[in-house]
Amino acid sequence: MKIDFNDTECAAMEEFIKGNNEVGRDMQKKFIDDLLKTVRSGEEYCPCKQDCEIHGKCMLCVQVHRGHGNHLPFCMQLMFNKKLASICELSEGSIISHLKKPDYLESCTYDDTDGGNKNECV
Q1: pLDDT tens over the chain, length 122 residues
Q2: Same structural domain for residues 15 and 5?
Q3: Is there a single domain that holds both residue 60 and residue 40?
């Protein structure tokens, strides 16, 4: 299941923004129902490819990341990066030359070209 920028949930948010809360709640309920079916079926829905014991256990993963405060969980990085990109455009992307990938991620690649986030670490 594609969770990030899910068509149903994006449409629900548009309805909430327009003030159509009942329609938005109905659409959001469909998204949640679909997600719960995916979880129950055992289908993969976590975009992170790190091999860890909390993979796919979203609540625990978020709590661990909140606990160490070092970085966002992988599943939230695409959303954050899209928001941050518009701010970075104010300086014509010049921030990029000041950024360095953390050493522990040097072997990882990140690809969001199809609208989903994928990472590969070797």
Answers
A1: 899 999 999 999 999 999 999 999 999 999 999 999 999 999 988 999 888 899 989 999 999 999 999 899 999 999 999 999 889 888 888 888 887 877 776 666 656 555 555 555 54
A2: yes
A3: no
For residue 14, CA distances in Å to 25, 33, 122 come to: 11, 19, 39
Query: Which two three-digit tokens encode residue 111?
Result: 């690809």
Element containing residue 79 per DSSP (H, E): helix 74-88
Rounded Cα gap, residues 75 and 113, in angstroms: 15
Domain that holds residue 104: 46-122
Reduce the DSSP state of residue 119 to 3 states and report it: strand
Task: Look at the chain and report how many structural domains it folds into.
Answer: 2
Same domain, residue pair 64 and 28: no
pTM of the model: 0.70
User: Contact, 34 vs 40, CB < 8 A?
Assistant: no
Look at residues 45, 60, 81 and tell me which one is the last residue of a structural domain: 45
